[in-house]
Design goal:
Length: 336
């Protein structure tokens, strides 16, 4: 375990915004957490559980503790010939896990290639992309309760997974540190190719298999999304809004080319990036914060931007979309 006071946070978040945390605690093994909680009662001290920092926007110094589960490791728990069960520790880099699974011929997360962040956050956020959400392959989430240090094992059904959400983000926010996730992957994959551009990209690469799907997803993401190592960003800043059929029809009467995707029960998901682009924000900047020139859903740090500048830009964009379309955008990124 490592503990530091007045710790700079610029390298702990993919937006690359500066600031200082009053205290930073890095856990290098899950067994360190219970002892830390015994010796350091959290009490009323503000604290934040930090993963890869790929879904956070710090708006200034953090006046509390950053708790960072950094332990890694992947273990095969079982293989019945149809499914493989693997246990990945919370600090494992998500895309490394995807690469490992694809290399071994285990299907289920190949469409989630190149998503930044760590395994623990994948369950907290219920990450999703290109027609797949991680909840479909999560069997169990292991976590430690911050109140008492008890270890819990939660089934996927108990985690309350929803669109880019889980109980860890809502009703259980701040109550648990996720330590590991158990995934159930397929020996005989079920390919998901219906997302625009995926099938065409795979077919250009020849045979349909896990490797060509992963290559295609990586190519698509690299073509339209900035690399956080080069340009500070947190991927999609906003969630795609979901509206009912009445609102959709009103919008289609005005914008027949509006992309929309059925979500069941007369609900439809809209493309937030399309809405933002139609409002004229794609590629625009306000000071050191900007909207990416290839994907309007991504806000970027042009260099030296503060978290407050990026937040202000996001709020201006959301107000513009609400004024133009009557649709409210909800942030996917957590603002601290």
């Amino acid at each position: 375990m490592q503990s530091h006071t007045h710790y700079p946070i610029i390298h702990l978040n993919t937006f690359g915004v500066g600031g200082v945390a009053q205290r930073y605690v890095r856990f290098d093994a899950d067994t360190e957490i219970a002892g830390f909680l015994r010796d350091t009662p959290l009490g009323d001290c503000p604290y934040l559980i930090l993963g890869g920092g790929s879904n956070l926007l710090f708006t200034g110094d953090y006046p509390g503790m950053l708790l960072h589960p950094a332990f890694k490791g992947v273990t095969v728990l079982g293989d019945d010939g149809y499914h493989v069960r693997i246990r990945a520790m919370a600090g494992e880099t998500w895309d490394d896990l995807v690469a490992f699974s694809v290399e071994n011929g285990w299907g289920g997360i190949e469409n989630l290639s190149l998503i930044p962040g760590h395994v623990g956050a994948s369950a907290v956020q219920n990450i999703g992309a290109y027609g797949v959400e991680v909840e479909t392959v999560v069997e169990q989430v292991e976590a430690i309760a911050l109140d008492g240090g008890e270890t819990v094992h939660l089934t996927a059904g108990e985690c309350g997974f929803g669109y880019r959400s889980s109980h860890f983000k809502s009703r259980w926010a701040g109550r648990f540190i996720v330590t590991a996730v158990v995934f159930r992957l397929r020996r005989t994959p079920r390919y998901v190719l219906d997302y625009p551009g995926v099938r065409e990209g795979v077919e250009r690469r020849g045979a349909v298999n896990l490797k060509t799907i992963r290559q295609t997803i990586i190519s698509i993401r690299q073509a339209k999304l900035p690399d956080p190592a080069e340009t500070g960003n947190a991927g999609s800043f906003f969630k795609n809004p979901v509206v009912d059929s009445g609102i959709l029809q009103t919008l289609l009467n005005r914008y027949p080319d509006l992309p929309h995707y059925p979500q069941g029960e007369e609900r439809f998901k809209l493309a937030a990036g399309w809405l933002i682009e139609r409002c004229g924000w794609k590629g625009r900047h306000v000071g050191r914060a900007a909207v990416h020139d290839r994907q309007a859903l991504v806000l970027v740090n042009r260099g030296g931007a503060t978290g407050r500048e990026i937040l202000d830009l996001s709020e201006t964009i959301a107000a513009s979309v609400a004024d133009h379309f009557g649709v409210r955008l909800e942030r996917e990124v957590r603002v601290v």
